[in-house]
Structure formats: structure tokens, C-alpha cells
Amino acid sequence: MAGNTEKTLAKLGIALPQAAAPAANYVPFVISGNLLFVSGQLPMENGKIAISGTLGDSVSLEDGQKAARLCAINIIAQAKAALGDLDRVRRVVRLGGFVASANGFTDQPRVVNGASDLMVAVFGDAGRHARAAVGVNVLPLGAAVEIDAIIEFA
Amino acid sequence: MAGNTEKTLAKLGIALPQAAAPAANYVPFVISGNLLFVSGQLPMENGKIAISGTLGDSVSLEDGQKAARLCAINIIAQAKAALGDLDRVRRVVRLGGFVASANGFTDQPRVVNGASDLMVAVFGDAGRHARAAVGVNVLPLGAAVEIDAIIEFA
Amino acid sequence: MAGNTEKTLAKLGIALPQAAAPAANYVPFVISGNLLFVSGQLPMENGKIAISGTLGDSVSLEDGQKAARLCAINIIAQAKAALGDLDRVRRVVRLGGFVASANGFTDQPRVVNGASDLMVAVFGDAGRHARAAVGVNVLPLGAAVEIDAIIEFA
Questions:
Q1: Main-chain dihedrals φ then ψ at residue C57, nearest 5 degrees
Q2: Which domain range does residue A120 map to?
Q3: ipTM of the predicted structure?
């Protein structure tokens, strides 16, 4: 049953987590036309924040990139929950990356590359996206990174 | 003349404010296709910021939720100005929530729930939306919360 | 060959820069349907950040507005790279403005007006957009402002 995208995930050694269920009156994704809007995902692993803290302070660049990659894995898990088959993804349109940052930390783009690189590893050229990457002083639950997404599907 | 959504608003005891007029070369909303993009709304009441300051410092969680609810009321007022009839709302697609936060405050999702809960109270299942909730150190005019929206309409 | 919009740019004395090439696995823009999503643009001039630092600290309101205007020029350069002819722009739908801000600086809307005003100067009524303007403590490469865009085209 697994499509090509899921085979790619398997080759990358990535097991998609259970897509996090709605926690409140917002939902993890909404479909409008052929666009899938995915709520801001945190670097959750096994149901809890795997990487918390602040870049430029307690979190290294490498761990920030791992956090961004985890956010991207959770985005893909939501896309699978929404679409059933990840091969329906036509284009990752946009990622919005928020990086918990000390005032002097200005390397947000390299942090968010952890997510961007995974999208291309998983979806190929369809994974190339527009994005914004900004610093913020603090994120929900103390997460190091939060990323949301808009995905075009067929 | 009032549609069902406006009856719901009345039952909730919510009087929509006059939609704030454009303050500059940006406008409070733009329609593209069947999507309504609403500019970031502040917790304005009677023409001024009702709740200013920083969560985790001068603003309590409860007041932050009230601020988020006020932002949502202003989003709905803009939707009415844009669409005429709120019953044309098919889906609140996405809310973007920014919470003015002290460095140690990590409860942004519960703050933004003040807006999410109102959307579902007003629009029912059509009010369930994707969202991002992040902390920032400061917002326009010192507002405690800012929220923008994408709404699908018919 | 220059369309009307490029004539307007020339009258404004604005030479579009070379659109910055993709720096990584994200790209400067993605087209989905008739919407152009432009990645967050920094106040780059001649290939480097022209205005860095923090509003309310080392950067004046006037310089912040210049930074926002530069971001807008870079957005327009990306739109030209994407669409070929800027006269294809039907509407600037949304700008997302992030302003590097000291905790006490609350004038983000006036900063982002530097971009909003340029969009209307260049595109006329089609340049009037929805927007969000928020403060953040720090931006990539120390930039004073970052702005992303959604543009409808024909």
C-alpha cells in the first residue's frame, strides 16, 4: 500500500509519528481548494517536546536543525493524516519557520534548513518551497522551533 | 436581515464593532478567489487597545485570552465588512496568533484559544481552523495579542 | 519591452536588483494556482544587508522604513523573476512584516508602511494589501526588517 513517498521516508529511516490530534478548537490541518494548511508543528517526538530552549543560548545550531527536522516530520505526518497518500503532494508551497532565539543569534535560516532539506529529501523538487524564517524570544512549551506549512495537493 | 451567524453572535452577547478603516496603504482585508485575507487585528475595543502589555509579566493568562477573543471579534467584524453576510463564511482556514511574551512564558496556545474558542462558538464546525501560535517580545501599540486570518467563503 | 509597472519603477528611480538566487533547499518563490508566494525578503542592497540592528535601539524609525522599502523592492524583484512581466500582477494580497524591535518599541506599523507605501506607488490600487506587522527580538543576519508576500497574478 505504501506509495513512493513513503518508500523514500523508509529509505531515510523516518517513521512517521501518529499525527497529533486536535488539542482544542483549532485543528492540525484545514483543506481549502487544493491547498492544505498545516498548523504550526513543534519538535515533538514520542508525544513530548524533544528539543526545547533558545538558540544562541542553551540550544546549539545542530540541535536547532534537528528540531526543525522534527517539525518537518510532524508536518509530513499531518499531511499523511489529511491526504491519506503522500504521493498526492504536488508542491510544498510555503514553510513558516519560527526559531526561539537569544537577541544575538542571527542564524535562523541555517536552523530552518533542517526542515527545508528534509522536504526536498522526501518530496524531491516538489519539496522546494517558499519560506520565511524569523527569530522570536519564546515559543509554546519552550520549543526551540515551530514551523507551519501550506501544501498543494492533487 | 440578520443571518444565522449574526443571531449566534447576538446570543453570545457580542456586538460587532465598526470594522476599523484602513489606516494607510494597506487595507483590513483582501479577497483573492474564494479566500478572504484579514490583516492582523489587535485587541481593540471602542477604538483603542483594550489589553496591552506582556504575558508572563503584566498580563495574566485570563486577560491574554480576553485579548485573543477581542482580536477574533475584530476579525469577524472585518469579515462582515468584506462579505456583507457572515453566513457566507464556509471555513475559517487559518489563524496566525502572535502573543507578546516575557522570555519565560510558554503558554501561547492557551492564550490563542481565546480566539479559537470564539470562532467555533460563532461558526460551529466551520470555525475550526489551522493555526500557528508563537511568542514575540513586543507588538504594535503595545498590544498583548495580534491575530490575522484566512477565511474561505462562498 | 518594459511594461507600465516597470515604467512606474523607473519614474520612482528604482532599479530592481538581481533577484537573489535560492540559497538552499528553499526557493525565493513558489507559484500555486494564480498565487505567487514570495519568501521572506531582507533589506538587501548590492548583495548585502543594508540596514541591520534593532528598532527602538540602534535603528531609527526612518531607517526602519527604508529597510521595509528595500524588502519590498526585493519582493518586486522576485515577482519579476517569477512572472517575467510585472504588469501581470493583479493584486498584492498580503504582506507579512517582521520588525526587529527592542522591548519598548511599538511602532511596527509605521515601519512596515515603508513597504506598503511602495507597493501602492508601484502597483496603484492593486498594491493595496492585507498585512500583519509584528515585532520580534532578532532577524536573520541581524536585519532590521523581514517581509514576505502573497501576490495574485494573471
A1: -135, -95
A2: 38-153
A3: 0.95
